Amino acid sequence: MANADIIKRFGFDGKPFINETFLYADDVLLGIRLWNLGYYTYYVPVESGIHYVSLTTKSSGLLSYYTIRAKFIKHAFIKTAYYSTVPVYYARVRASLWTLCKAGFKKYCAIHKAVIDGWRLGLKLRSKFGFLDLNKAPHVKLSGHIILAHTVFPVRSIFLRKRFVTHNDLILNI
Question: What is the pTM of this model?
């Protein structure tokens, strides 16, 4: 549910979502934008319909393209306490995927394209709407050594995969 007047006034060009962020990014961007403007967003765990998982992308093979593109849209568009490390992370991921693609691993070519497309779109949106500041929304703060390790090395699974996030982990700026 949303207040239509607030969305018209403070959404993205009067709309709740950005057309170009189709799939996997739009709701997050709207929520952070509203928190940045002093409004609250809430997750209400009520089943209100049936979600047919991957129905849009299943037959096309684009599932990983859109999920990875969304990740890099957010990396370029959302400012965090560790934003200065994001360009290094982007360069590492892009170079690794390019190397794998050129070595003949074709699935990495599409992922490489998703990374580049997401980053470019995120920068375009940032120049149009400004940074979205994650520190103004509830978020889970990770320690600096985890962020640094993830920036330089592909260690996500070691540090983050088994991390259970609770409500107490959230930093609320209300």
Answer: 0.76
